[in-house]
Amino acid sequence: MDSPIDGFLHSHYNGLLSIYSPDDILSLVKLYSLGLIKDTNKFLMGLVTGNNQYFLTIDNPAKFTNFSNLYITNRDLDVTAQNALNLIYGSLYNINETNNASENLKNFLNFLNANNTGLGLVEGDSNSENWKKLSVDKNGKIIKEDCK
Fold it and tell me: In the chain, N or C: fewer CB atoms in 10 Å?
């Protein structure tokens, strides 16, 4: 692939992580670092799981650039940084396959926010008709706002 894309969709079937994995985040970082995202304001990285469907968005390109630079060396993924992300994900934020989907969702939103990723998360209903922008308040409650 050498042409910029508008987005892509993938799935995590039952038994896999109920939210985006570290490898998913690193795939997005790699696409971005190689200039393979056509328009960061419109790009969507979709995920369908056994429980939910999501879109990851780049809400703040400057923050996402800074976040991405932590994981890239000479336009390639840095192996040490990759290992660190896997450790942070599982140990610090407790995002894993054994958690229920709600717990992983809350932990993932905390990860996005605390690490200044510049990424946002949108969740769709089972009919893909109603989409909500997700965030976590200071008390750890998930906030769902209508998409505009």
Answer: C
Cα distances (angstroms) measured from residue 18 to each of 60, 62, 101, 103, 107: 24, 28, 5, 10, 11
User: How many other CB atoms are found less than 10 A from the CB of residue 90?
Assistant: 13
The two three-digit tokens of residue 72, written as one number: 């890239």
> What SS3 class is residue 44?
strand
Structure tokens at 85: 């992300």
Q: What's the Cα-to-Cα distance from 106 to each of 20, 21, 63, rounded to whole Å?
A: 12, 14, 21
The region that residue 34 occupies, defined by phi over 0 for left and psi between -120 and 50 for alpha, beta otherwise, is alpha
SS3 percent helix, strand, coil of the chain, rounded to 5, is: 35, 30, 40
Count CB atoms within 10 A of the CB of residue 74.
6
Whether residue 45 contacts residue 31, with contact meaning beta carbons closer than 8 Å, is answered with no
pLDDT in tens, 10-61: 999 888 899 999 999 999 999 999 999 999 999 999 999 987 899 999 999 9
